[in-house]
């Protein structure tokens, strides 16, 4: 279901809020902040020839192990011994040529695959040996609920499969987790066994997602030839370095360190939603991000048209 009452845009106007109190609460091992009722108004415009469809439900069943990272026994966390260096991948000429195409605004929102990082983006792990204990970024629950109703969403973390599973169990409700396209972890980064067990700089190369047959079937228009690619995929991550191969498919948010820092920090996800609502109206997300990259406090807000 796509709510139909608002668009995202650069604006100084703040979204409506209902005050709930500023004290954090502990829920199932997760610290949640509930200082305001976070509301958004997703974009909905009328006429277009672009194919579009509601985000379908893609539950991850036991007979679909390819959608979750392997849960085979591996070291609990990468070893802290001296790490090998992995050169940062560079964008291809074809990628840069595509991203340098002029932006074009559509009349209706298009299908988007949103890839979410965990630690530093949605949450802060207080103890890496205990993945189920973390602090969620302010408004994470509301943010995720909105994203799952509007986009195709998957998780991709550099943590181990066991840790990713533990974090997702705490972060998402059972129903929400069933809506995820996939849960990817460290084993999906193309690391050698040595690199996997070391604390190395890793990179999330989106070709791995685009080349996955299992992920491809999650496109709402897959049966009609729809596919995920450079024009409709977004990585939300606090590390720009991890997005080296596809820098213009990346929305960079400040690293969340488990504490509140400023008013802009508390409204990060509201600003991301405003940016996403604008970008869903673009023919190619990479050309839009190249031209107008996301920045906190740059005026992007989820706008309520009712005033």
From TrEMBL:
- The UniProt transmembrane annotation reads none
Output the Gene Ontology cellular-component terms: TIM23 mitochondrial import inner membrane translocase complex
The residue stretches assigned to a coiled coil in this entry are none
As for membrane topology, the entry says: Single-pass membrane protein
Stretch list, region Disordered: 1-90
Instruction: Please list the residue ranges annotated as the FCP1 homology domain.
Output: 107-279
Please tell me whether the keyword Protein transport is annotated for this protein.
yes
Q: Where is the signal peptide?
A: none
Question: Tell me, what is an example of a GO biological process annotation in this record?
Answer: protein transport
The UniProt keywords, alphabetically, are: Mitochondrion, Protein transport, Transit peptide, Translocation, Transport
Q: What biological function has been recorded for the protein in this entry? A: Essential component of the TIM23 complex, a complex that mediates the translocation of transit peptide-containing proteins across the mitochondrial inner membrane.
Q: Subunit structure, per the record? A: Component of the TIM23 complex.
Stated family: Belongs to the TIM50 family.
The protein's name? Mitochondrial import inner membrane translocase subunit TIM50
Protein species of origin:
Glutinoglossum americanum
